[in-house]
User: Fold this.
Amino acid sequence: MFTGIVAAVGRIESVKPLGTDGDAGVRLNVEAGGLDLGDVQLGDSITIQGACMTVVAMTAHSFEVDVSRESLNRTAGLGEPGEVNLEKALRAHDRLGGHIVSGHVDGLGVVTHFVPVGESHELRVLAPRDIGRYLAYKGSITVNGVSLTVNSVKDRDDGCEFSINLIPHTVEVTALKRLRESTQVNLEIDLIARYVERMLNAPK
Assistant:
């Protein structure tokens, strides 16, 4: 489990195919940035852009993960070098600063608007319609591994557009600063919303 509070911005340094056919995954070498790897062991989980990955090799300042073709097809930002948001798995005694995050990407959104507004930034994302039903005013959403609060929700024919206000600190310490219009982002809905829907719709 994770909290959606990004611990560091790292960088995917290399992407190496794990095979020669089109179904092969890749191995990522990730420079950890300011992420402390002192307590990380092989087999531990780290989210990269909000996607939970397993550490298969490491040095003092970097680590490697294997990403399946299925994961590559269902996520954004893991198939090429670039800056990424990183978070180690939650420990039982840690503060839950964001919200409960599983590191399982539910779908891809598309940035429709990202501009400065006063000292902050307004971010708007178009989510698929099947994700839109889980979004609510002042509810939680994870975007590229960052726990954020939804400011507005607008249902459209082509999906559900939601807006977020990013304070300067969030922009400064995450890779969200690199977002541009039409950029794809990884979305994970609030875990509690999943259970609420199940309780409401399960057969009696």
Observations:
- The first strand starts at residue 8 and ends at 17.
